[in-house]
Amino acid sequence: MRSNYNQAAPHWDHFSDQPHRLPASEKQRLAPGALREYVLTAATALLKLPEIAWRYTVMPLSLSPVLPKHFVGLSISYDPHFGDATREMVTELGVRELLLRVPLWDLHRIDDYVAFAERFPDQRFLINVLQDRDSVCDPVRWQTGLDAVFTRFGHISSDFQIGNASNRTKWGCRHSGEYLRLLEIAEDVRREHPGINLVGSSVIDFEPLFTLRTLINRCDFQLDAVSSLLYVNRRGSPYGRQLGIFDLARKLRLIAAITAASKRAAPRLWVTEFNWPLLDTKPYTPNSGRPETTVDEATQARYLKQYYQIAAASGQVERVYWWQLIAPGYGLVDSRGGRLRKRPSYYAFKEVLDGDLLQSPIRP
């Protein structure tokens, strides 16, 4: 069983908790707006590359000691079937930092989301406002939705992540310019809500050019923290390298260097999503589910620990959230059949919170 909170949305795959894949004909990668963004991205990269390279080279290793209770975060989902169990497990794990997704297409049930969050008075929330294509195309809808979320969750949290996976077409934005417009509207709405902190640019995977474009620009917004949905490799260890160079530590360092060069964001980096999909869990996996793109449960638990330990040792990131607590295809807890089974990664997560975060990770 999976959460039923999004089943009414035709674009949403409620098995894997993400939008359905779009056909190539709907991606419009060569549309005029997208081409303009490619040109601006290339020009920005050429202009800022020397500064970013310099910052990457001289950036200090660590700015402050890492405290597990502030560093280790966990995403939870509203689900009327598992509300009590979620609260019990959050207490058992001892996690303080929680992330809760609030889809704009589900605002008719916003009271349910608020009531769910109120069940965790000892935790601190990052509220992730999810966009869809309708809200991207309708600025009034996006503005009204943000205002409702800021208003209803204002007594629970001051931190709001604006959008999710901004560089993936299936999440609603056809190009970076459309996402930048969402940030500008969020800045407008924020002016009516003193004390609100905006978090973005919500880039998924390692795409530094998209990160650069959404953080270095002349748009009218200011982020209080930078979010990155930084998956290292769907089946590989955090030590694995992309382009032959960038393992997890180097990826974090590059994103932090881009953040430091930005005038649109405070120099604070949060990883707000990562996991490893699990073998033999299709259709609940967010990918093909094949053995070459998934891991077994023991490997997932080992990689979870390594990821947190490497991120903590990097000195470049303030907070890291695992996505998510209950999910058959990748979560710490399996909910298939309506019964909850804690996986090895559940206990690995608790060990990280209890002190293993500060241990040196064991290389594969």
Strand content: 5-15%
CATH level-two architecture: Alpha-Beta Barrel
The CATH topology: TIM Barrel
Helical content class:
25-40%
- Low-confidence blocks of residues: 1-7
* Order of neighbouring strands in the sheet with most strands: 3-4-5-6-7-8-9-10
**Could you give me the name of the CATH homologous superfamily?**
Glycosidases
Molecular structure report:
β6, α7 (176-190) and β7 form a beta-alpha-beta unit. The protein is globular and about 50 Å long. α1 (32-58) crosses α9 (248-261) and α10 (297-314) packs parallel to α11. The protein contains eleven helices and twelve strands. The protein is α/β, with parallel strands linked by helices and 364 residues long. The strands form three sheets. An eight-stranded parallel β-barrel has the order 3-4-5-6-7-8-9-10, surrounded by six helices. Strands 1-2 form a two-stranded antiparallel ribbon. 46% of the residues are buried. Helices cover 37% and strands 14% of the residues. It has a single domain (27-358), classed as Glycosidases (TIM Barrel, Alpha-Beta Barrel), CATH 3.20.20. It has helices at residues 32-58, 68-71, 83-93, 110-117, 133-137, 139-153, 176-190, 208-215, 248-261, 297-314, 344-353; strands spanning 12-13, 18-19, 72-76, 97-103, 124-130, 159-162, 197-204, 225-229, 269-271, 319-322, 333-334, 341-342. Mean pLDDT is 92; it is low at 1-7.
